[in-house]
Design a protein that fits this description.
The complex is a heterodimer of chains A (183) and B (269).
Chain A: H1 4-22, H2 25-30, H3 37-47, H4 50-66, H5 76-88, H6 98-122, H7 132-162
Chain B: H1 4-21, H2 25-36, H3 40-59, H4 63-101, E1 110-119, E2 127-130, E3 143-145, E4 151-158, E5 163-167, E6 175-179, E7 185-190, E8 200-207, E9 217-220, E10 232-242, E11 247-254, E12 263-268
The chains are: A mainly alpha (183), B alpha+beta (269).
Chain lengths: 183, 269
């Protein structure tokens, strides 16, 4: 059961990458494709160990780049850096609060694509960048803020469904029961 | 907070990332195609669901509508057949004249239909995925057109059963074009992007004496060795002088709408 959490995260990332490639109605509406893997990344960084965070960054980044014109591996680095930074400070963050999750989602939603862009441009690639990039980053940030608390709720539900729950102990004790009537 | 082995893990992970980033382009492309193969079952599944829904939709269409559509199609087919015969005559005449003038023969296009199965998940590129690959004879840099004959782009990386098509307006797909009316040559490049309308591109390298006006048709020039000449690209919206009047650039509205493309034709040599 210990492997269930990373497996669920990995599966979610796989489907998220595919959905980003396949579902385009939000892109047609806003001109920006929402990045679903960033929200699962935030959740993973705040709840998992470093091995899971590293594996998710590697797999998610490579899967994303394999369906994109991005140079191979360019998304791995921003996902890894964001994940490690969030993990580093997770004990200082109020990660149980929805507001904190929203802020983290917004920051990650802006940071990951911005870092990817910087890395690509420094490698000599020529992505489509202009004033509208600010709009793109803003929409990605807002999407991150909206989706991250949702992602937390979904994963918490899944955890309840698939993992053994701790046995609740009650204050009732057999030996302290008052027996009424004649025995 | 982190123990020493975890620091080592971070350093190793970053080294791995750097190693992948500095991989040679061909090796990186192969790796991407191999990893992208993991998504083939999902692409196949969604194509099957799409065609299933299409068939289910066909069953609920009333017979009267189908009969009307059939008669319309027959009429259209007859009209196109007459036009085809005329075009065949013109083509043969053109071939004869070319031979007389000693110019190379123009080969008719061989086209193959493909279904669009996805788009680039990143926001920085204009690219689509189609369901044809190397098993169908598709190779790199083949031109791709829309069902209405307008230019879509060129084939990029080719997998076994899936290929990438880089769309017009992406920095990786410059197109040599000419204005049909004035025969003025230029190159299509991405515009300073409007996120709400990705179908507007920039036509650059026009001379300052160009005679331009809105609504002029822009077609491929055939130069550059990838796109055959005469494919519709779009129409001019407006133009302006740049570099203190040394050159002119025009904004072109592409004939194909990226968001509405569902099927394309790959032109095979």
């Amino acid at each position: 059961m210990r492997a269930l959490h990373p497996a669920l995260l990995l599966l979610t990332t796989y489907f998220a990458v595919y959905l980003q490639c396949r579902v385009t109605f939000l892109r047609d509406l806003t001109g920006v494709q929402i990045e679903l893997i960033i929200s699962s990344r935030v959740y993973a960084s705040l709840t998992s160990n470093l091995a899971t965070v590293g594996m998710l960054a590697f797999c998610g980044g490579m899967w994303f780049d394999s369906l994109s014109l991005n140079p191979a591996g360019v998304t791995v680095f921003p996902l890894l850096v964001t994940g490690i930074v969030l993990m580093w400070f997770r004990d200082l963050l109020l990660r149980e609060q929805p507001y904190a999750r929203q802020v983290l989602g917004f920051c990650a939603g802006v940071a990951v694509p911005a870092l990817s862009l910087l890395l690509m441009m420094s490698m000599g690639a020529r992505p489509l960048v202009g004033w509208s990039t600010l709009w793109t980053l803003l929409v990605l940030g807002v999407a991150g803020a909206v989706l991250t608390p949702l992602m937390f709720r979904v994963f918490e539900r899944l955890r309840v469904l698939f993992q053994y729950q701790p046995l609740e102990t009650t204050s009732f004790r057999d030996d302290r029961e008052i027996k009424r009537g004649r025995s | 907070m982190f123990k020493r082995p975890l620091y080592i893990f971070c350093v190793l992970a970053l080294l791995l990332v750097v190693l992948i980033l500095v991989l040679q382009t061909t090796l990186g492309t192969r790796m991407k195609l191999a990893i992208g193969g993991l998504f083939l079952p999902l692409f196949g599944l969604s194509s099957a669901v799409d065609s299933g829904m299409e068939k289910a939709g066909d069953r609920v269409v009333p017979r009267s509508v189908l009969v009307k559509e059939l008669s319309d199609m027959r009429r259209e087919n007859d009209r196109l057949r007459i036009l085809g015969r005329q075009a065949q005559e013109v083509f043969l005449e053109n071939q004869r004249l070319r031979i007389m003038l000693g110019r190379p023969e123009q080969m008719p296009w061989k086209v193959r239909a493909a279904r669009v199965v996805g788009r680039d998940p990143a926001n920085w590129w204009h690219m689509i995925h189609i369901d044809l690959g190397s098993r169908d004879g598709v190779t790199n840099s083949m031109p791709v057109i829309a069902p209405d004959g307008s230019l879509v782009g060129r084939v990029g990386d080719v997998g076994h059963a899936r290929s990438q098509v880089i769309l017009v307006g992406d920095p990786n797909c410059p197109v040599s074009v000419l204005i049909q009316e004035t025969r003025e040559h230029g190159v299509i490049a991405p515009s300073s992007i409007n996120p709400f309308d990705q179908s507007i591109v920039e036509l650059g390298y026009l001379s300052r004496n160009s005679i331009l006006r809105p609504d002029q048709i822009v077609v491929t020039s055939g130069k550059g060795g990838i796109f055959p000449s005469g494919i519709l690209v779009g129409r001019i919206i407006d133009f302006q002088s740049v570099d203190q009047g040394l050159y002119t650039t025009a904004r072109v509205k592409l004939a194909m709408a990226i968001s509405r493309i569902e099927e394309v034709w790959v032109i095979q040599p």
